[in-house]
Amino acid sequence: MRKWILMTLATILLGGSVIAFLLFPRTSPEISEEQAEETVISLYGGSIEQTTASGEDYQVEFQRTDGRYLALVNRQNGQVESMKLLKKRKKLKN
User: Fold this and answer.
1) Where are the alpha helices (H) located in the chain, listed in sequence order?
2) Residue 64: closest CA among 81, 38, 88
3) Which residues share a beta bridge with 35?
4) pTM here?
5) Could you give the C-alpha distances from 71 to 5, 8, 67, 86, in angstroms and in order?
6) How far apart, in Å, are the Cα atoms of 61 and each of 4, 6, 13, 82?
7) CA 92 to centroid of chain Cα atoms
8) Given this model, what pLDDT does residue 71 score?
9) ∠ Cα 64 60 75 (to 5°)
């Protein structure tokens, strides 16, 4: 009988821990603007023109040889959420 009580208590504690973990996940500290810029440059190359904080993202504008781009970097996990071409650079004819 005592064994069953201990197993029941252990199951309740484990279940409570899992529920608490799912309901209250730990949030990691936000990444800095510099870290967002480093991520964009390491993935796509080029040079940073401007970085601004916007909601849950950093908007990183950067220049490459083929044009000017805007990348949205998530402030919580540092992942690039999207990237779009702002202005395409014309190719020079040889």
Assistant:
1) 2-23, 33-44
2) 88
3) none
4) 0.65
5) 56, 51, 13, 10
6) 62, 59, 49, 12
7) 36
8) 95
9) 140
pLDDT mean over 12-17: 87
**Two tokens at 68?**
């000017």
For residue 94, pLDDT over 70 is answered with no
- Distance of alpha carbon 17 from alpha carbon 9, whole angstroms: 12
Write out the two tokens for 47: 């040079």
Using alpha carbons, select from 38, 32, 84 the residue that is nearest to residue 58.
Answer: 32
Q: Indicate left, alpha or beta for 7 from its phi (over 0: left) and psi (-120 to 50: alpha).
A: alpha
Amino acid letter for position 77: N
Query: Which tokens sit at 24?
Result: 């209250």
Q: What is the pLDDT of residue 44?
A: 93
